[in-house]
Design goal:
259 residues; alpha+beta; 15 strands; Fructose-1,6-Bisphosphatase, Chain A, domain 1; D-Maltodextrin-Binding Protein, domain 2; 36% helix
C-alpha cells in the first residue's frame, strides 16, 4: 500500500466537513429540528441532523478510503481499520445550540496516523469559515494564515477565556465553583457552546485561552491541532483539555486544577 498523501487527506477532510456543513445548514434554516434521543445524560441530545451528518461523512470517507479507521460521536461508531490511519469526527458539535436555533455550531473532521494528528478541519457553515491545518504547516482560515494571541498575551487579568460545561450535573457543580474562582482573575469568560469552534476561535485570536472538562477526542482533535500550530500550549487536564499562551498556561492551569 502506498503512503497516503497528506494534502489529499486534508482535501478529503475539507470536502467531508463542507458536505456535512451544507446538509446541516439546510436543516438548520428550516427551524424544525427535533431531538431524537439522549446520550450520556438527559441533557445530552442527539438529533436526526447529527446522524445524517455523520452518515454523509462516513459514506464519503468510506468510499474514498475504505481501509481507514473511523471514530465518531454518534451511533457508537469506532472502526479500527487496517491502513494505519483513523478519522476522528464530530458531525455536529454544538447540538444544543443547533436545536435552539443558535448559530454557534460546527463540523470537525481530523485524521490521525501513528505519530498523532496529521490533518484537521473545523467548519462553521453559517459563518462561512473553514479552519484547516496540516502537520508541519501553518493553520489557516479560509486559506489565510491564522494569527493567535500566543505572543501578545502576558497577563491573565487581561485575558478573555473560553470554556464549556459538562452534561454531568455533578461535574457542572464543580465547574460552577471553578468559574466563581476564575472570573475575578480574568478579563471575562465566554461559553459559546461548541468545543471545536472554541478551539478554532482561540487559534484565531478571538479568545486568549480555552479549557473544558468532559470533552472527547472528536470534540478536540482538529481544534487542538489548530491551536498547537499557532504556538499555543495544548495541555491535557483530567477528562479534558486546556489551551493557553506559553506565558499564561501554568497560571491558568493552577487555577483550573485547584480544589
Amino acid at each position: 500500500m502506498s503512503e497516503p498523501n497528506p494534502r489529499e487527506l486534508l482535501a478529503l477532510a475539507t470536502e467531508a466537513a463542507l458536505t456535512a456543513g451544507e446538509l446541516l445548514r439546510r436543516r438548520f434554516e428550516t427551524g424544525h429540528e427535533q431531538q431524537l434521543a439522549t446520550k450520556s445524560t438527559p441533557t445530552d441530545p442527539v438529533s436526526l441532523a447529527d446522524l445524517e451528518s455523520q452518515r454523509a461523512i462516513r459514506g464519503l470517507i468510506g468510499e474514498r478510503r475504505p481501509q481507514d479507521g473511523f471514530l465518531a460521536e454518534e451511533e457508537g461508531e469506532d472502526q479500527p481499520g487496517s491502513s494505519g490511519l483513523r478519522w476522528v469526527v464530530d458531525p455536529l458539535d454544538g447540538t444544543v445550540n443547533f436545536l435552539y436555533g443558535i448559530a454557534q455550531w460546527s463540523v470537525s473532521v481530523a485524521v490521525r496516523d501513528a505519530e498523532g494528528t496529521l490533518a484537521g478541519v473545523v467548519h462553521a457553515p453559517l459563518a462561512g469559515e473553514t479552519f484547516a491545518v496540516l502537520r508541519g504547516e501553518a493553520p489557516t482560515r479560509n486559506g489565510s494564515p491564522l494569527r493567535s494571541r500566543a505572543a501578545d498575551t502576558a497577563s491573565l487579568a487581561q485575558s478573555l477565556i473560553a470554556t464549556g460545561f459538562s452534561y454531568d450535573s455533578g461535574l457542572r457543580a464543580a465547574q460552577g465553583a471553578l468559574i466563581a474562582r476564575l472570573l475575578p482573575r480574568v478579563r471575562d469568560i465566554r461559553r459559546p457552546g461548541s468545543a471545536a469552534l472554541d478551539l478554532a476561535g482561540t487559534a484565531a485570536g478571538r479568545f486568549d485561552a480555552y479549557f473544558e472538562r468532559g470533552v472527547k477526542a472528536w470534540d478536540t482533535e482538529a481544534g487542538a491541532m489548530l491551536c498547537a500550530g499557532v504556538g499555543l500550549v495544548v495541555r491535557a487536564i483530567p477528562d479534558g483539555i486546556l489551551v493557553a499562551p506559553p506565558a499564561l498556561v501554568d497560571e491558568l492551569a493552577s487555577i483550573v486544577l485547584e480544589g
